[in-house]
Design brief:
This protein has 110 residues and is α+β, with helices and mostly antiparallel strands. The chain has two helices and six strands, in the order E-H-E-E-E-E-E-H. The strands form two sheets. The protein has a three-stranded antiparallel beta sheet with strand order 1-5-6. It has a three-stranded antiparallel beta sheet with strand order 2-3-4. Strand 3 and strand 4 form a beta hairpin.
Length: 110
């Protein structure tokens, strides 16, 4: 990066890379409710068609870790348990770009 003069008090921008973090995740298929409830407990629930309200594509919900509200979940999304044990829905394409499988020999160590 070429040298640039920065005015006194100007913010110095730096680039950062996300640390490698292992997560546990289960993909919601729309029909594996028991598997997701076993994984996320009361932080996950399937949504019956008659209860979908404004978004008929929503098939489940996961509790938002900060606000305690429910976030929509759609078939094909992954439910990720983060390093702090909170659950987040991640779109299938974003999940594929962001995560890769951990070799089985390290599975379960964290």
């Amino acid at each position: 990066m070429p040298w640039r003069y920065l005015a006194p008090g100007a913010p110095v921008m730096r680039r950062f890379r996300k640390k490698p973090v292992e997560v546990t995740a289960v993909q919601w298929t729309g029909s594996n409710e028991a598997e997701l409830v076993a994984f996320a407990g009361s932080d996950f629930e399937a949504v019956d068609p008659e209860d979908r309200g404004d978004d008929p594509e929503q098939t489940a919900a996961v509790r938002h870790p900060v606000h305690g509200t429910w976030v929509e979940v759609y078939d094909g999304q992954w439910i990720v348990r983060d390093a702090k044990g909170k659950f987040h829905p991640v779109a299938e394409d974003v999940f594929a770009e962001t995560y890769e499988p951990v070799p089985s020999m390290t599975w379960g160590t964290r």
